[in-house]
Amino acid sequence: MENSTPSLPLNRTEARRGTRIPCEIPVTLVNLDPLHPFSESCQILLVNLKGCAARSTRPVEIGAAVELQGLPTRTVTAQVVTCISLGEYEKIWLLGMGAA
């Protein structure tokens, strides 16, 4: 009888599936939370099949639903999965976003 339980990745490299493609795509990031709405320009820096990373001038709460407007093909709804400050004195954050 075959084991139907999927094997766990042995290391982080195995866990990351798909190629990250560097890019510079200007978009408008719109927070879809009606209690904390905002819209701002940001830049997508990396993309893959599961999401993207973007540079922002403000932090965004992890779990927030956002919309990326101005992409070449369509508007995309995503969920923020990481928000990392790029320095104590910098006003720049790196946002990791995945499919909502």
Q: If you average the pLDDT, what whole number results?
A: 86
Give the second-level CATH assignment, the architecture: Beta Barrel
Beta-strand percent range = over 45%
Largest sheet: 6 strands, antiparallel, barrel
Named CATH topology: Thrombin, subunit H
Q: How are strands sequenced across the largest beta sheet?
A: 1-2-3-6-5-4
Radius of gyration: 16 Å
Summed up, the domain count is 1
CATH class: Mainly Beta
The parts where pLDDT drops under 50 for at least 5 residues are 1-8
What count of helical segments does DSSP give?
1
Q: Shape from CA axes?
A: globular
Question: What is the CATH H-level superfamily?
Answer: predicted glycosyltransferase like domains
Number of strands: 6
Give a brief rundown of this model.
This protein has 100 residues and is mainly beta. The chain has one helix at 12-15; strands spanning 21-31, 38-48, 51-56, 65-69, 76-85, 93-99.
What would you note in describing this structure?
The protein is mainly β and 100 residues long. It has one domain: predicted glycosyltransferase like domains (Thrombin, subunit H), CATH 2.40.10. Helices cover 4% and strands 50% of the residues. The chain is built from one helix and six strands, in the order H-E-E-E-E-E-E. Strands 1-2-3-6-5-4 form a six-stranded antiparallel barrel. Residues 1-8 have low confidence and may be disordered.
